[in-house]
Automatic annotation (TrEMBL):
Compartments where found: Cell membrane
InterPro entries in UniProt: UppP
Keyword Transmembrane helix: yes
Organism: Paenibacillus algorifonticola
Miscellaneous: Bacitracin is thought to be involved in the inhibition of peptidoglycan synthesis by sequestering undecaprenyl diphosphate, thereby reducing the pool of lipid carrier available.
Lineage of source species: Bacteria, Bacillati, Bacillota, Bacilli, Bacillales
GO cellular component: plasma membrane
Annotated keywords: Antibiotic resistance, Cell membrane, Cell shape, Cell wall biogenesis/degradation, Hydrolase, Membrane, Peptidoglycan synthesis, Transmembrane, Transmembrane helix
Listed name of the protein: Undecaprenyl-diphosphatase
Keyword Transmembrane helix part of the UniProt annotation: yes
GO terms for biological process, alphabetical: cell wall organization; peptidoglycan biosynthetic process; regulation of cell shape; response to antibiotic
Length: 270
C-alpha cells in the first residue's frame, strides 16, 4: 500500500512537470509546491534531470523538423555560403548566443540561487512578477520573423532565460515574453524560446549524469522515477501542443490571470 501511494505521488509530480514545463507558469515553482503538499522530500538533482529530459524528448520530437532544417541548412551554408541557407544559419547562431548567459550564470551561481530562492514565498512572488509581465505584453504584435533577429535580441532573450534559474520564474514564460517584447512575431518567439530550451536541457543532462549515477535513492526509487519520467514525457507532449494553439490565438493573458491567482493564494495560505 505504501508503495502504491509513493508511486501515485511521483505520478502526480510527473504530470505537474509535464504540464507546466512548456507553459509560462514555472515547472520548478509548481514542483516545489507539489513536493511540499505531497510530503515528498526530493533532494539532489537526479529527479529534476530525469523529468527535464523527458520534457526535452517530447519538445524535441515536436520541433524535430525545425531542428533538422536548422542543422542541415547551417552545414550547407558553412560549406557553400549560399544565401538561401543564411537565415537558418543565423537563427542557429542566435540560439547558440542566447544560450550563453544561462550557461555562464548557471555554472557559476545555480547552487547559490537554489539555496536562497527555493521557497514557496519566492515562488509566489515570482508568479506575480510573471503575471505582470504576461499582462504587459498581452496585446503586442511583433513583426520580426526568424530572419530578422539580431545578436542583441538573442542576448536579451538569453539573459531572460538566465533569470529563470530562480524557482518560480518560468523559463518558457521569460523567454517568450522577452522575445515578444523585443518585437518577434508570436510564432517566432515560440520557436526561438524552445530552441533555446533544447541546448540548455541537453547540457543539464550531460552535466547531471553523475548525479543520476550517484543518487542514493536510485535503487529504492527506480519505479517511482520511471513513472514520473513516462508521465512527464506524455503530458509534456500534449501540453506543448496545447500551448502552441494558445500562442497562435494570442491568448497569453489567461496565463497572466492564473499567475496572479496562484501567487496570491500561495502568499495567503502557504
Amino acid at each position: 500500500m505504501d508503495n502504491l501511494i509513493l508511486w501515485l505521488k511521483y505520478l502526480i509530480l510527473g504530470i505537474i512537470q509535464g504540464f507546466t514545463e512548456p507553459i509560462p507558469v514555472s515547472s520548478s515553482g509548481h514542483l516545489i509546491i507539489a513536493q511540499q503538499l505531497l510530503g515528498v522530500d526530493q533532494r539532489g538533482l537526479a529527479f529534476e534531470i530525469l523529468t527535464n529530459t523527458a520534457s526535452l524528448i517530447a519538445i524535441g520530437y515536436i520541433f524535430r523538423q525545425d531542428i533538422n532544417r536548422l542543422i542541415v541548412n547551417t552545414i550547407k551554408y558553412m560549406r557553400t555560403r549560399d544565401k538561401a541557407y543564411k537565415s537558418d544559419f543565423l537563427f542557429a547562431m542566435y540560439v547558440v548566443i542566447g544560450t550563453v548567459p544561462a550557461v555562464i550564470i548557471g555554472l557559476l551561481f545555480k547552487d547559490q540561487i537554489e539555496a536562497y530562492f527555493s521557497s514557496v514565498r519566492t515562488v509566489a512572488i515570482s508568479l506575480l512578477i510573471t503575471g505582470v509581465a504576461l499582462w504587459l505584453i498581452r496585446n503586442l504584435q511583433g513583426r520580426k520573423r526568424d530572419g530578422d533577429l539580431t545578436v542583441k535580441d538573442a542576448l536579451i532573450v538569453g539573459l531572460a532565460q538566465a533569470v529563470a534559474l530562480i524557482p518560480g520564474i518560468s523559463r518558457s514564460g521569460s523567454t517568450v515574453i522577452t522575445s515578444i517584447a523585443v518585437g518577434m512575431k508570436q510564432e517566432t518567439a515560440l520557436r526561438f524560446s524552445f530552441m533555446l530550451y533544447i541546448p540548455i536541457s541537453l547540457g543539464g543532462l550531460v552535466l547531471g549524469i553523475s548525479d543520476i549515477a550517484n543518487d542514493p535513492n536510485r535503487s529504492s526509487l527506480a519505479i517511482p522515477y520511471i513513472i514520473a519520467f513516462l508521465a512527464t514525457l506524455i503530458v509534456t507532449y500534449f501540453s506543448m501542443r496545447w500551448f502552441m494553439n494558445i500562442m497562435a490565438r494570442g491568448n497569453l493573458k489567461y496565463f497572466s490571470y492564473y499567475c496572479f491567482i496562484a501567487g496570491i493564494l500561495l502568499l495567503i495560505f502557504l
